Amino acid sequence: MSASGLIRVVSPFDAVTQAQLRRIRPRGRWVGSHQGWEFPLSASSVLQQQLGSRFAITDALMQWLHWSRLPLPPLPPHRELVRAASLTDALADGRLPLSHQRSGARWLLARRGAVLADEMGLGKTLTALLAARSMVRCADVRVMVIAPVGLHPHWSREASALDLPIELVSWARLPQELPRAGTVLVVDEAHYAQTLKAQRTNALLRLARHPRLRAIWMLTGTPMKNGRPSQLFPLLAAMDHPIARDQRQFEERYCQGHWSERSGQKRWHAAGASQLKELRVLTKPLILHRRKSQLLDLPPKQRRDVVIQLSAAESLGFEHRIDLVVEDYRRRAREGAVRSDAEFLAVLTAWRRIAAEFKLPAVRDLVQGLHRRQQPTVVFSAFVQPLVLLQAQIGGELLTGRQKPSERQDSVDRFQTGEKDLLLATFGAGGVGFTMHRANHVVLLERPWTPGDVDQAEDRCHRLGMQGGLTSHWLQLGPADQLVDGLVASKAERIELLLGPRRLSLPRQPLPALLRSVLQAA
After folding, report:
1. How far apart are CA 211 and CA 67, in angstroms?
2. Helix (H) or strand (E) holding 217
3. Does an H or E element contain 21, and which?
4. Rounded Cα distance, 421 and 436, in Å
5. Exposed/middle/buried for 222, CB within 10 Å: 0-12, 13-18, 19+?
6. Are the CB atoms for 397 and 367 separated by under 8 Å?
7. Are residues 106 and 62 in the same domain?
8. By residue range, what is the domain housing residue 25?
9. Which of 166, 157, 186 is nearest to 92 (CA)?
10. Is residue 371 within 8 Å of 384, Cβ to Cβ?
11. Which of 116, 265, 320, 344 has the greatest CB tally within 10 Å of its CB?
């Protein structure tokens, strides 16, 4: 078995054997790094008939083959599953499932594999657990939830409200096998599996292809965070979507997959996007994406650009800091320590980090003005150091990846209970899993590269239970911030084309050209 749950066939080169393997259906693929072929489990009977006498079968594969010959009993009809879900009954804590949560549970129960891609704040956790409870009531199954460790308490609370036993596992420690009885696999923050190069993605695919799996339901508000269809491929493969059974064909059609040669080496590139309208039609039956504006009567959210102008002395200091970075980078490039052709990207990253510090006086004035008006505020940044400096100046709670999960929750709790009116969070630590709906203002010191991370951060605050509207302040200093904001908007349009109701056409410009234009304008 491969790490991703495929049958791996490895043998010394033999033209006859290779010809036989090419004729196997369902079709396999040659994996040069392993010097072998990989086939889906559905090809096992043909492989055994034609090659079983010549190849040794590992114990793990033998167990999977045994289970595949003893399929799980069929589930009851959909209407019985919906009836067993008791969607109109109150929970143990007195809550009633909302209308969109009930319809979402019915939608999940009709699918063995699905992506619930509702916007953050719509209660995907409860929706999935309602559907899972019905499966437990109707069949001999257990519920396994894959979620970041910091979200385990939230899942435990929601499962307790439904009196539903669940097994919680983290993304860092996914099991290799499932028990003999069927398993319903609920995958939270499914965008963690957006590259096939990651071990956790392959571990998830192994579970998704397990013969004792009853259903896999994946939850994410950002199924394509960076606007690239290649990020969607692992989720489609986990659902066994037909278009994800041939990775190369998928990448050629939807990711502008192509070979390029550099320094005498050929490399495969599949980071583009094409045929998005067709991809939208093919994936829509298995991806449910709904917006809060469609389903909830939430207070409005507005974005406000805050353009920062530096004084002459500040501009001189800012430019000097950038010059030092450029000189140091070019020195290391001459020494062979870094790639000489990556200067534009390296300078842009340094530019944003330095700019974050030069924005702090404006942030301090903005936050102190909001504090005088008794407006709870969350400040987000990609960098820890500016937040530490800001906390030293004006106080507030700090929320970063340097804290333990329990310490992060304590920081959020102190903000939510009103003990503190200011929360300073990194996008990585504060943008996932927490509820901060007490905030009326969000300040983004800079924006991440991906629109999904921007939405995650803002929607930690813009959700059920908030009082009053939410204003998101986008601080901009110079053309570097304008570039990133433009990229975020461009990627958001690409995601909108795939998931949203509108049909768009997308202008395209290579990233290196954008970077050069920014540095030239500076």
Report:
1. 6
2. strand 213-219
3. helix 15-23
4. 11
5. buried
6. no
7. no
8. 7-68
9. 157
10. no
11. 116
